[in-house]
Write a structure and sequence with these properties.
Layout lengths: L2 E3 L2 E6 L7 E5 L1 H4 L5 E6 L2 E6 L13 E3 L2 E3 L6 E3 L16 E7 L2 E5 L7
Antiparallel strand pairs: 1-2, 2-10, 3-4, 4-5, 5-9, 6-7, 7-8, 9-10
Length: 116
C-alpha cells in the first residue's frame, strides 16, 4: 500500500520488500520522469531510477547483491548507494533518491538526494 505525506511516499511496510528484492514505484505515483526502484540489500533500502542508463530495461527486475544491482538486459552493474556505473556496457550512472525507514514503513522521497 502506498500513501503520500508532504514530499515522502510510503511505498511499503517493513518486510514487504524481501532482502535481495526490489519494488518498482511507477512514475505516475512519484511525479517523477521515470519509475523508481526501491531495493532492499544487506538490511538497507536504496532507490534508483528504474530504467537502466544503457538500455531500456527495468533495474527492479535485476539481480541485487553486495550493494549492487545488475541490469537484466546487458549485465551492467550499478552501485545502490551512489548510482555509479560499475562496469561496461554502462558508462552513465543512475539517479539516486532518498529512502527512509520510520514507523514500520519504507518511505521514498523522489528527487531528494540520499542522506548519510
Amino acid at each position: 500500500m502506498t500513501s503520500t505525506t508532504g514530499t515522502g511516499i510510503r511505498v511499503a511496510a517493513l518486510g514487504d520488500i524481501p532482502e535481495g528484492e526490489a519494488l518498482k514505484v511507477e512514475a505516475e505515483l512519484t511525479g517523477h520522469d521515470d519509475a523508481i526502484a526501491v531495493f532492499h540489500d544487506e538490511q538497507t533500502y536504496y532507490a534508483l531510477d528504474d530504467t537502466c542508463t544503457h538500455g531500456r530495461a527495468s533495474l527492479s527486475d535485476g539481480w541485487i547483491e553486495g550493494g549492487e544491482v545488475e541490469c537484466p538486459l546487458h549485465s551492467a552493474r550499478f552501485c545502490l548507494r551512489t548510482g555509479e556505473a560499475q562496469c561496461m556496457p554502462a558508462t552513465i550512472g543512475m539517479r539516486t533518491h532518498r529512502v527512509e525507514v520510520r514507523s514500520g514503513a519504507v518511505w521514498l522521497y523522489p528527487g531528494q538526494e540520499p542522506t548519510g
